[in-house]
Design brief:
72% helix; mainly alpha; 5 helices
């Protein structure tokens, strides 16, 4: 079980590092999904990519794991309005099925639970994804 928990923690870190990198590899995708009510689209896409990469890396460094977990949860909360905007306005995003846009909303909760389980205080007897 310990091996599985360690694997899930490393997968989490790599997932966010790759997701953040994608903001720079394919910025047009992220620029297109930015809600019109937010300013500085390019800056926010870059900032969120940097945060995802940096926090994904920090998840893998034990002294920073818990901090990175809370940072990733905050980031997932921060991007939730953009996902909600997409679901409420599927006509702006014809390349996506409306059902998939709605599916992204609970997926954010699943990601938050994964982050929390893998990064909560390792001193807890019931902590998931902890490493010894």
């Amino acid at each position: 079980m310990h091996l599985l928990k360690t694997l899930l923690k490393y997968l989490l870190g790599v997932f966010f590092i790759l997701a953040g990198s994608n903001h720079f590899i394919h910025p047009a995708v992220y620029l297109k999904i930015m809600p019109p009510y937010l300013p500085w689209h390019s800056f926010l896409v870059s900032l969120s990519g940097i945060c995802e990469m940096g926090l994904g890396l920090l998840v893998l460094i034990p002294p920073f794991t818990r901090f990175a977990g809370w940072g990733l949860i905050a980031l997932l909360i921060a991007v939730f309005p953009a996902n909600l905007h997409m679901a409420l306005h599927p006509d702006y995003y014809p390349e996506f099925r409306p059902g998939l846009l709605w599916l992204r909303l609970p997926l954010q909760l699943v990601l938050m639970a994964w982050v929390y389980a893998c990064t909560r205080d390792s001193r807890s007897k019931t902590a998931s994804c902890r490493t010894r």
